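In line with agreed milestones, work has continued on tokenised descriptions of protein folds. One protein thus recorded appears below exactly as we store it:

>
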Amino acid sequence: MKSLWNDADARTCGGDPLKLRIYTSRLLGREPALVLHGGGNTSVKAPATNLFGDIEELLYVKGSGWDLATIEAQGFAPVKMDVLLRMAKLDQLADTDMVRVQRAAMTDPGAPTPSVEAILHAIIPFAFVDHTHADATVAVSNTPDGDRYIHEVYGDRILVIPYVMPGFVLAREVYRRTKCMDWSRYDGMVLLHHGVFSWGNDAKSSYERMIELVSRAETFLEHRKATTVARRTGASTVTGIEGTIAQLRHAASKARGSAMIVRLDDSPEAAGFADRPDVATIATRGPLTPDHVIRTKPLAMVVSNDPPADISHYGAAYQAYVERHKQPGQTMLDPAPRWGVWPGVGTVTLGPTAKDAAIAADIVRHTVRAIQWSESLGGWQALPEADLFEVEYWDLEQAKLKQGGAKPPFAGKIALVTGAASGIGRACAEMLRAQGAAVAALDLNPEVTRLFNTADALGLGCDVTNLAAMQSAVARTVRRFGGIDIVVSNAGIFSPSESLDKMTAENWQRSLDLNLTSAQHLIQLTIPYLRLGVDPTIIINASKNVPAPGPGAGAYSVAKAGLTQLARVAALELAKDGIRVNVLHPHAVFDTAAWTPEVLAARAEHYGMTVDQYKRNNLLSLEVTSKDVAALVCAMAGAPFAKTTGAQVPIDGGSDRVV
């Protein structure tokens, strides 16, 4: 592992301890092999002058919920050192009391809750302290001979602490072992099955010592020929992958009681791991570090060709695990798995949201690599399940999962929107995503891949009139998110104005292909997944031209009328599957690519109106925007339309030609 320290960048911190702490924290956070998604913590000790002019020694420690990769000054909690050191001397202290006292000792009540390792950071008598969950170091320690291997890697310059529950118990154990110790004898500290600490009186020495410690573990693995990870060179021979994924998500969502996202990783490395003959044994021994348990659960699932049975067996095993270890007053969390290995295919991760599934995927990617390293050193050995249960059901860890507040209405739901690069389609995709849905956004415009490129948004360049391209887009959506719950058929074109006697075959056919046939293909391709969806629905974007066609718009009006009739038939046929199908008829939505300022001005002038008057030329004298249409789409996808199917709803401000 290479140091990312840059003297020029460090000088911009002006010698300020907290700015340097931020700088090196981000360097650590940029390396996934060190920390993942909020894991690890850092601190710096520095004096501060309080309101009364007194100088206080403070520990600025990473706040709970902050990610080292992006941490800012407000992500560090300033805690009085004297309080932390006094707590370290206590014989007993409940973790909830520890958190309460630490918060009371903060000099900024608006700062985040200090890390549960704050007392441990305070004990270490150096200005800068870094703590990571380095893959290489943990892989070496998670073996039957882990203690011996750690000493072989680091010699006598490392302090080794057997696994102890994080929080006060760990801090107290370290204090007990080190209160008469000469800390200068050591370069760092390894917590078996947990992680590694480094320290120094300046930011650079603490950071680079961490890099050096992890590099030594990496070198040890190389010398032991333990760094080779299985990779598959050929493609998967499993057929029906998408159907199995959708069944898996359906069963997992039922087990959890709400919609879940399932993410497939069939990369060569994940597939190579899944191809191992011993994968069902080594993948189910536990997580890389106990910190991961709230993201991955202690048990992995083995996926077969019968996902409902897999989920049922997993739930029974998880319930038995809880019954073995729960204390009075503890209630079992949901029994749905968070990751699994799929022999012959790869790995899958599950989460209440796309972000959760993506975080679990990152953790699993590092876990499967470390498992194989440990196996080559004598065997992968996770913590006993009692220790994992203690962390999984620890109030302080569960609080991290509740920090997001109320669940958005479409959390865990999966939406597919066509024509999503601009106008109404883009507004629909963005609003569904803002309300918690994972969104696959399809458009012929390749810009869609840039607009929708996050853990919960997948932009797919796709010609919806090309059946093969649509099949591929639907399959990619299912592989990325696990299924489909909401289909928004929006892609379309307003055909050039032609009277029937002068209609060109090209104009007629293009309108039918894009405005009608593509929607039929979309419905047909998504029905198998909607049948396995959560509150599944199809929403068709038709037109005011259906109830009120205009002269010269025959190609467009006929296609949209056919589209509406298609939706009505779909509502009749799919109701038995619980799939709702509703239609909206927008009109005069001007904030789209088709309505340039020049076109708007010309049309307004043609009718003797100002542009504003033209935009509001309806019964309510209100402008209808893409966001207004998107809000109606979200309503149709959600609770307000939960008992409605086959409806046609105008959104046009009121048209005298329709009313």
In short: DSSP finds 25 helices and 19 strands in the chain.
